Amino acid sequence: MSTPTTAQMLRQLHCAPRQDALSAAAVAAWLALLPEWTVQNDKLCRDFGFKNYYQTLAFVNALAWMIHTQDHHPELIITYKTCAVRYDTHSVNQGAGGLSENDFICAAKADDIYQSSQVAP
């Protein structure tokens, strides 16, 4: 798959079974589309902040629906005002794991959910 040129294009994609992890150059290209995300310990990571626990859980519930429909599940760490999301693909590289297109697709979709959950003051 070629690298999308915008985050909007990335959000339109759908996860599919992957066999190969992205190269370091491809990870850098895909990461450039998602400025709030970083790669830490070989995982695509972002912490989402909220005003209270209710907003945090509302985001987690919306995220749960998206990850269910994409069939690509992240590691979630939920606290009172934060949801940490960590993506990687366990099935690539013959089960050795790594980052795949699916991680970036779901990260872009998570950003979209977060943006739509933010209420203007």
Task: Explain this structure.
It is a single chain. By secondary structure, the protein is an alpha+beta fold. Helices cover 40% and strands 17% of the residues. The protein has four helices and four strands. It has helices spanning 7-11, 24-31, 53-70, 101-117, and strands at 38-40, 43-49, 75-78, 82-87. The chain has a four-stranded antiparallel sheet, with helices on one face. Strand 3 (75-78) and strand 4 (82-87) form a beta hairpin. The mean pLDDT is 92.
User: Describe the biggest sheet?
Assistant: 4 strands, antiparallel
Total helical segments? 4
| Termini separation | 40 Å
By helix and strand content, what is the structural category?
alpha+beta
The stretches of 5 or more residues where confidence is low (pLDDT under 50) are: none
> Per DSSP, what share of the residues sits in E-state strands of 2 or more residues?
15-25%
User: Could you tell me the radius of gyration in angstroms?
Assistant: 14 Å
The total of beta strands comes to: 4
- For the largest sheet, list the strands in their spatial order: 1-2-4-3
What shape does the CA trace take?
globular
Average of per-residue pLDDT values: 92
The level of helicity is 25-40%
Q: Write the H/E string, N to C.
A: HHEEHEEH
